[in-house]
Design a protein that fits this description.
The protein has 364 residues and is an alpha/beta fold. It folds into two domains: 236 residues, Rossmann fold (3-Layer(aba) Sandwich); 93 residues, no CATH class. The protein contains eleven helices and eleven strands. The strands form two sheets. Strands 5-10-9-6-11 form a five-stranded mixed β-barrel, surrounded by four helices. Strands 7-8 form a two-stranded antiparallel sheet. A hairpin with a 5-residue loop joins strand 7 and strand 8. Helix 7 packs across helix 11. It is elongated, with a radius of gyration of 26 Å. 40% of the residues are buried.
């Protein structure tokens, strides 16, 4: 079985159905002109999507449901152990709960989940049959909610609604049962089947999580144009997740970012006096930070690094080489430097060069 040489990622995406996975594949092809790249780690097959907004992004597919063989709980647990993501995002299709206020294709983002399978079945004071929810209402990770709220502000696609999503093992396709679920949680904006596994796996590993799904039906037994509505919903969810990733802010800080702070400053030890002669000893100094002009750095990168090496450097410091404008290397290099300078991050590139290409002199 093939093992991954570099298994870590920033974001682990999770889909369940063929439709959800195909929608993600089509969106990647349309936006970036590239296909999935298989990554085999242990018993699971992962798909590398490359850098999205600087975040190393990988997809894994789960079987349906939260528990059982191949379920979201086991799949996400294995993915976290193998890839060590900073965030797990589940995306795909869900059922809506209010056809008067919602539309097929509307996006639902989990502010909270309600695990409806945990119930107390009893009687009320009058002796009538009564069901009460007993499960947790876990909240999605605050920083991921922040990123998705920020992304929704510049989103021009389907309406986005943040709220509580029902999650349970049952495939909901009955009006009365859906009504019963809404009575358990009147604030619910939709429901699905795998969120409980997402929450439990991520919570157990102390990894941040969020769920983004779009409405494909109403869970009331009246599904119409099922394949078409599922395709629309899955595509909307994929497009929105890509949109948010592309805004940035989901990449895990790397060792190069840590190194950048050291590279961008000069550390000088205080001068010391010799106890014997009273003469000032030489001050111990760390190497000064590189002082290259933009044209000098551009010429150095263009002449000394090949395209493949530049791609690797970009990947390591959190820049998507394929998103930089230009068809030829000199223009891409110019865009790379401008991109880093806009963010005050040129020191990350210097740190990478010092570690990986010590033969290159970074002096004017």
């Amino acid at each position: 079985m093939q093992a991954a040489a570099q298994s870590e990622c920033d974001v682990l995406l999770v889909t369940v159905t063929d439709t959800e996975t195909d929608a993600l594949r089509a969106t990647l092809q349309q936006r970036y002109g590239r296909a999935f790249e298989n990554l085999f780690v242990g018993p699971k097959t992962y798909r590398k999507l490359g850098l999205l907004g600087g975040a190393r992004t990988v997809l894994v597919r789960s079987e349906m449901g939260a528990v059982g063989l191949g379920s979201s709980l086991l799949t996400i647990n294995a993915g976290i152990e193998a890839l060590k993501p900073a965030a797990v995002i589940m995306l795909g299709i869900a059922f809506g709960v209010d056809s008067a206020r919602q539309q097929i294709g509307d996006l639902l983002v989990s502010r909270q989940l309600m695990l409806y399978d945990l119930q107390r079945v009893g009687t009320d004071p009058s002796g009538a049959y009564q069901i009460r929810a007993r499960g947790d209402r876990p909240a999605a990770s605050p920083w991921l909610l922040d990123r998705f709220r920020a992304g929704s502000e510049s989103w021009n696609g389907a309406p986005v609604r943040f709220g509580l999503i029902l999650s349970g093992e049952k495939l909901v396709d009955n009006h009365d049962f859906r009504t019963q679920l809404r009575q358990l949680e009147s604030e619910a904006i939709g429901g699905e089947m795998e969120g409980a596994g997402l929450y439990v796996a991520a919570q157990n590993a102390k990894v941040d999580w969020i769920m983004v799904k779009a409405i494909s039906d109403w869970g009331d037994g009246t599904k119409q144009h099922g394949e078409d509505t599922q395709l629309l919903a899955a595509r909307n969810a994929a497009e929105f997740v890509f949109h948010v990733l592309e805004q940035g802010g989901l990449a895990r800080p790397t060792s190069y970012q840590d190194q950048a702070a050291a590279v961008s400053s000069v550390h000088v030890e205080p001068a010391r006096l010799s106890s014997g002669s009273g003469m000032q000893a030489d001050a111990a100094q760390a190497p000064a930070a590189p002082q290259l002009s933009g044209p000098q750095l551009r010429a150095l990168l263009t002449e000394r690094l090949g395209v493949d090496e530049l791609r690797t450097a970009c990947y390591d410091i959190g820049v998507d080489w394929d998103n930089l404008r230009g068809e030829v290397k000199p223009i891409r290099v110019l865009e790379l430097i401008a991109y880093l300078d806009r963010r005050g991050e040129r020191a990350k590139l210097y740190a990478w060069l010092q570690e990986n290409r010590p033969d290159i002199e970074l002096r004017a």
